[in-house]
Design brief:
The protein is of the alpha+beta class. Helices cover 28% and strands 29% of the residues. The chain contains six helices and 18 strands. Helix 2 runs antiparallel to helix 3 and helix 5 runs antiparallel to helix 6. About 4% of the residues have low confidence.
């Protein structure tokens, strides 16, 4: 396996993540005929042998004419890739199970348009219907999205990519391999149909709260048809989440603190992280201040997008 990997790195000149920008020089572009190109080559060979056998002048002319067009298509396929510059784009954090979406920016410094390009992760099944072709205008650029499946939390790196073209006739496939230095953070997947965010005294499972006032937020529960519309957590509904109803009481909490140590002792690591992720999202949707305590890390109460990202990042990288 080591010899094969070394041969692959030497042949395709890609040994790992590359610093941007990545410029496709002539030594990084590979050219081979497609199946259609091989069938045409076999047809031209038969035509040539027939013309020789029967001394057909028109046969010679037609054979060499078609062969010349095919030969020129090799040059055009190669020029369609050479000189392109690749840089990584944005890669926003996602929850485990959702595909990570890496942005890849391709720039064309030449005065000619690049047509019929396809970008996809190397080694994926050949499914042309799922691969969108795109063009790059002369002296222009375009941003493409590469979707990578996620199966675990933490950082996921952008794998090796393939950029190919079969322009202009489909007889020749020219391609290049590269690996931009980019990674995406994968949050733990939130627990499905778990207990709602509990708020109250120290006896609450995993949370502690304090505050006063008869209209203080006390938590979320499953929605009932008889609940008042003004108590519905509309922000959660608008985001496509389940219907929840806000609860208020005099001993409610102006802020909550989510504690790792107060979860049931029998829960596994990933189950704990999934439940804490769910509660962080519910507290964020409710618009209350919340903190997070993990072994070796403590985030004070806060709110907002940056605070939510900080809490979910701690959960994603825990352990």
């Amino acid at each position: 396996m080591g010899l094969r990997a070394s041969l692959h790195r030497w042949l395709f000149r890609v040994s790992g993540p590359e610093a941007p920008p990545i410029v496709l020089g002539q030594r990084r572009i590979f050219v081979l005929p497609t199946r259609f190109g091989l069938a045409l080559a076999l047809t031209l060979l038969i035509m040539l042998l027939t013309s020789i056998n029967y001394t057909l002048s028109l046969g010679f002319a037609l054979t060499f004419l078609i062969g010349s067009v095919a030969w020129i298509s090799i040059h055009h396929a190669f020029r369609n890739l050479v000189g392109l510059s690749i840089t990584p784009g944005r890669a926003d954090a996602v929850f485990c199970g959702n595909p990570a979406q890496f942005g890849v920016v391709l720039s064309n410094p030449a005065l000619r348009e690049r047509q019929g390009l396809i970008l996809f992760p190397t080694g994926t099944p050949d499914t042309p219907g799922d691969r969108q072709r795109f063009d790059i205008a002369a002296c222009g650029s375009t941003s493409q999205i590469v979707r990578i499946p996620t199966g675990h939390r933490g950082w996921i790196s952008l794998p090796r990519l393939t950029l190919e073209t079969r322009h202009p006739l489909g007889l020749i496939r020219a391609w290049s391999l590269f690996q931009p230095d980019a990674r995406c953070l994968v949050y733990p997947a939130p627990e499905q149909d778990g207990p709602p965010l509990p708020v109250g005294g120290p006896a609450a499972a995993g949370l502690g709260g304090k505050g006063h006032g008869q209209d203080d937020f006390a938590g979320l529960r499953h929605h009932q048809p008889s609940d008042a519309p003004r108590h519905v957590a509309w922000k959660a509904v608008a985001r496509g989440g389940p219907w929840r109803t806000k609860e208020f009481d005099g001993s409610g909490a102006r802020h909550v603190h989510i504690h790792w140590a107060h979860l049931p002792a029998g829960m596994g690591l990933e189950a704990r992280l999934a439940r804490l992720t769910r509660w962080v999202l519910e507290a964020d949707r409710a618009g209350i201040d919340y903190g997070l305590s993990l072994p070796g890390a403590d985030i004070p109460p806060g709110r907002g997008t940056a605070h939510r990202h900080a809490c979910l990042t701690r959960l994603a990288l825990f352990g």
